[in-house]
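We emphasize that the prediction below concerns an isolated chain of 241 residues; any contacts that depend on oligomerization or on bound cofactors are therefore not represented. The input was used exactly as deposited, without trimming of termini.
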Amino acid sequence: MELTEIGNILNLDIIIRVASALVLGALIGLERELTNKYAGLRTNILVCVGACIFTIISIYGFPIVPTSGVEFGTRDTARVAAQVVTGIGFVGGGAVLRHGATILGLTTAATLWIAASVGMACGAGMLGLASISTVLTIIILVSARFFERSVLSTSIKNTKCIKVNITCKNENSSKIYDSIIDKYPNLREISRKMNKNGENMTKISVVFDLSSKNPIKSIYKNFQDTEGIESISVQEFNEIV
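Result of the prediction step, given as a token string:
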């Protein structure tokens, strides 16, 4: 076989590896994109393809050269690829945020780590391993989310932080205030303030935790028959992502 033919075969093999990394990275990124995560389609594709390219460079970019006579020096093909594992930690670290006692983005960071490993598998020519890993990753992300929502409905991951503002008549404020304390034991804060403009109105603001699939709907349902409420507004905040 001529040298040019060997080069063509090698180039075709490299193209297949890079293309596989692109496709598999896109599949992982698509799942993240559909769930509205910041590190979505483009990020996972770039991480996967980048890891693939670094692995290919590590394998083919540093040829063996003679050291003395007919003896050849050894090359460490894992040296460049090993730095991908370290480097992806900085990318994943950028996806992790901390807000008080709440940590956000751990799943997204772990997904980027997996995308890098899939890219490295593609770069090493282990396309079967890369494909199986991608399928398992998507199954885990989708099925685990369904399991958490349906079975672990009371988990802290499914707990929403709810803020409710109620405007009511002064004579009904104490009754509504006490009713809120009884119905929602997981209170974070609650306040009651009378209108200073001389109107017969009181504003009650309350923040609490609630584990429910449709928290806004359930809150409106709880207060729809309460006497004296003139207006109510509900805001939902997802504490953990």
